[in-house]
Amino acid sequence: MIIFSPTPLLSRYAECMMWLARYMERMENLARLLEVTETFVRNAEGQTAWDSILAINSDESLFQQIHNTTQHTEIVPFYVTETRNPSSLVSLAQQVRENARAVRPLVSIELWTQLNVFSRNLLNLKNGDMAEHNLAELCTRVRQDCQTHFGIAEGTLYRDQAWLFYRLGKALERSDQITRLIDIRYHMLLPQSEAPGSDIDLTQWTSVLRSAAAYHAFRRLRPVTLTPANIVGFLLKNDGFPRSLSTNLRQIDETLTLLATHDNLRQFCSPLLECVAELRASLQDQTAEEIIIRGLHDYMSWIQTQLMDLQNAIASTFWPVIIPQEAALTKMAEQEQN
Amino acid sequence: MTNALHLAPPLTRGLLDNYATPDFFCELMNRKSPAPPIIDCVKKRLSALQIQELQNRTASAEAQLYRMGITFTVYTDREAIDRILPFDAIPRIITAEEWQHIERGVQQRIQAINLFLHDIYHEQHILKDGVVPAELVLQNANYCQAMVGLDVPGGVYVHINGTDLIRDQQGRFLVLEDNARTPSGVSYVIENRHMMLRLMPDLASGLPIRSVEEYGPRLHNALCEVAPEGVDDPQVVLLSPGIYNSAYFEHVFLSREMGAPLVEGRDLFVENHKVFMRTVMGPRPVHSIYRRLNDEFLDPLAFNPDSLLGVPGLVEAYRRGNVTLANALGTGVADDKAVYAYMPRIIRYYLDEDPILESVETHICAEPEGLAYTLANLDKLVVKPVGESGGYGLLIGPQATQAELDDFSQKLRHNPGNYISQPTIGLSVTPTLCGDTVEARHVDLRPFAVTGRSVWVLPGGLSRVALRKGSLVVNSSQGGGSKDTWVMAS
C-alpha cells in the first residue's frame, strides 16, 4: 500500500532519498567488512588481508594515487578518515549528511536527529580512534548506528513516493555490495580450494558469510557439506536472506511495481521493470554450480553493469534534465553570437 | 574517609533572591506599577527553583537543540559550524492587555505599509503631497522598477512581516525597526515553546498561555489567498537558497509546518511565463512562492546575472500575474531607516489615525526644526546616517568626546539631509540565567504577522536577550540568546 500525496514528489527529493539509503547501506557494509577482515580474513602468510577490501571496492588505483605505496598500514585510515576517498566512512558520513539535509522537510524529526548526531560524530573522528585495537569498537558502533537509522526509517517514514525511492536505493546498494563481495572473495579463495586434495579453509569461507551477516542464517540450513557453491548459492539465490541478490532484486521489482500503480507513472516504470525481470530470470534459470562453471566473474560483472544501467535509467526517468524553452532559446542566441 | 563537610547539603536559596531590581523597566520584577496576578504567580514559581536546577535544565535544553539540529550555520574559511541560539529558560511574559495593544498596533502598521508600497509603485500621491521626500523613495536602492504599475493580488506586498519592538524605561512599547523583506526567527518562537513545555512544565502548568501552533497553517492559507486569480487549488512552495544557507533550519521548519515543498532555484523553471517545479511525475505548475531569497538573487535575467540560486524568467512570470511572490519585490523601501522616520506620518496619511505603537522619537535633520534640535542636544542623542548602508558613521552622543561632537556638528550642517537623530533608550530587562546567578539583561520583541486577506499576528514573538552585561545588542551574531514568549489569554 502506498499513499499518493496531493503534491507529487520533487525530483530532487527522490534523488536524495535514494542516495541517502544507498550511502547508509554502503556505510553499514563497509563497517562490517572492516570488522570481519580484521578478525577473520588472513592471507597465505597468516596476516590480515586488508588489500582484499581494496579489491572489493575497486579502489586499488585511488589508493596508489594517494599513498604511492602498497603499505597495508595505510589501508585502514584510507577507509576510515581519508576525505579524498569517497568511500571512506568519513566521506560517506558527509554524503549521508548532505542528502539527509536536503530531504529534512520530508523525514521524521527522529530520523534526522539520530542521523545528525552520528554523522557529526563520524566527521569528528581523529586518527587515534582507529588504532587497531579500537577499530572493531568503532565499526560495531557505526554498524549499529546504521541499523538504528534503518529501524527509525522503517518505523517513522511516511509511506509515500519518497519511501519508495528510499527502498529502491537500499535494495540497489545491497545488490551491488553482495555481487562485489562474492566476486572478489571467491577468486581470492579459489586457488586454494581448487588445489587437488586440499581442504577448504573453513575460516576463510565462513568469513565471506560473516561479511554479509549471513553466517548464522546459513548454518540454519544445515548444509551437508560446506562448498564454495553452497555459499555462493546462498548469497545469490536464497529468498529468505535479506541481503541476498534474489531478495533484493525482488524488492526492486516490488518497489517499481508500487510506483507504477499511479496512472501517470505506469509508462515511466515499464522499461525499468523489464530490466529487473531480465535480471531475476537469469538468476532463477541457473543453479550456483552452473553459474560457477559458466564463469562467476563474468556473471557478477554483467549484473553490476545491469544494476548501474538501471540506476541511470531511474535517474533519467525521475530526475531528468529539463531545459526550459526560454533558456534553450537564450543559449542558442548566445551560441550564434559567439 | 569522607570529610563531614561534604555531607552537608549545599546552601539553598531562591532563584530571584539576589536579583538586583534595576533602574530599567523589568518585564518580571519591576513593572513600575502593581504587577498583574499572573506575573506574581510566575515569580513565585520561579523563586521556588534552585539555581542548580535551572542550570541543569538549561544545559539539557541546549543539548537537545543541538542534537535536533535546531541550529544556524556559521561559516569560517575552513569549516561550517552549527550553532544553536542560546536558550534561556526564564520566560518573557506579555499580559493580555499588552498584547491587545501590540496586535492592533502591528496590524495598523502593516496596513499602512501595504498602502504606502502600493502608492509609491502607482500614483505616488504621498510624494506629490510632499509628506515623504520623493528622492528618499525614488532614489532608494530598494526601490524596484519592475514593480512600477504592477497590481499585486489583494494589494498585499508584505505578506510576512516582523516588527522589532523595544520597551523604554516607562514600559512603553516602541517600534525600533520594521522587517518587511524576508524576516527570520519565527521557527525559534515555536521551537522555544516546545522546548519550554518539555523543560518547565511545572512553570507553565495551568496558565492561560496562548498557543503558537497555528503559524504554519495560517501562513499556508494566506499564501493560497494571494495566489493568482482563477487558480482553484494553488500550489505553494518555499524557495530557499539551499542546504548551506545559515537559516536553512527555519526553511525546513516552515516547509514542514505548511506541508509545502521546500524548493531550490534549480527545482523550478519557467516556460511560457509560467512557473513549474520538477517532480517525479513531470513538471507541476507553481502558484505561490514564499521566497527566502533576497530580491537581487531571484532571477538572473532580471537582477544579478551571476545568481545561480534564482530562477531565470521568474520576474517576468510574476509581472504577468502567473505567480505570486511573498513578499513582493521592492518592499525594502518600507523598512528603510530613513523611511522609518516618516512612518508616523505615513500612518496618518493613509489611515487618518494616530499610530497605536509609537516609534522611537526621531528628528529628521533635513527639516530645520529637527536640525536645530539635534545640534542643540548632540551630547544626548544617537545620530544615524540614513544612507542605504546603515550602521556606519553613527554618533553616540553620550559616549562622544567634545572634539567628536564638534566634528559631527560640522558634518550635520554640511549635509543635514543625510541624518536622523534619536534619544538613547534604556531598553527593558528580564531575569536571565548568567553563569551562577540570575541577572537583568536587555530584551526586545519581534512579533510576526501574516497577511493574506487580512492581517493576523502570531500571539507570541521572538524575545531576544543581549547576554553580555549592559549590552543592548540582541542579535544572534553578536552574543544574543532567546527566550520563550508567553502571551497570556487573560
Q: Strand sequence of the main sheet of chain B, in spatial order?
A: 3-23-22-19-18
Beta content of chain A: under 5%
Q: Provide mean pLDDT of chain A, rounded.
A: 87
| Alpha-carbon Rg of chain A, integer | 22 Å
What is the multimeric organization of the chains shown? heterodimer
Provide the residue-averaged pLDDT of chain B: 91
- Under the CATH scheme, which class of the domain at 229-322 in chain B? Alpha Beta
The number of distinct β-strands of chain B equals 23
Structural class of chain B: alpha+beta
Task: From the 3D structure, determine the CATH topology of the domain at 229-322 in chain B.
Answer: Rossmann fold
As a percent range, the share of helical residues of chain A equals over 70%
Principal-axis shape of chain A: globular
Pattern of helices and strands of chain A: HHHHHHHHHHHHHHH
In short:
The complex is a heterodimer of chains A (338) and B (490). Chain A is mostly helical and 338 residues long.
Topology overview:
The complex is a heterodimer of chains A (338) and B (490).
Chain A: H1 11-40, H2 51-56, H3 60-67, H4 75-80, H5 89-102, H6 109-123, H7 132-156, H8 161-194, H9 202-211, H10 215-220, H11 228-237, H12 245-259, H13 263-284, H14 288-318, H15 325-337
Chain B: H1 4-7, H2 37-47, H3 51-67, E1 71-75, E2 80-84, E3 87-94, H4 96-120, H5 125-128, H6 134-138, E4 160-167, E5 173-179, H7 186-199, H8 201-204, H9 215-225, E6 236-239, H10 248-258, E7 262-263, E8 268-271, E9 274-279, E10 282-285, E11 288-291, H11 314-319, E12 324-326, H12 337-340, H13 343-351, E13 358-359, E14 363-364, H14 368-376, E15 381-385, E16 395-396, H15 402-414, E17 419-423, E18 429-434, E19 437-446, E20 448-451, E21 455-457, E22 462-466, E23 480-487
Parallel strand pairs in B: 3-23, 5-13, 6-7, 6-11, 11-12
Antiparallel strand pairs in B: 1-2, 4-5, 4-20, 8-9, 9-10, 14-17, 15-16, 15-17, 18-19, 19-22, 20-21, 22-23
Helix pairs in contact in B: 4-13, 9-10
Main features:
heterodimer; A: 338 residues; mainly alpha; 2 domains; 72% helix; B: 490 residues; alpha+beta; Rossmann fold; Dna Ligase, domain 1; five-stranded mixed β-sheet; 23 strands; disordered N terminus
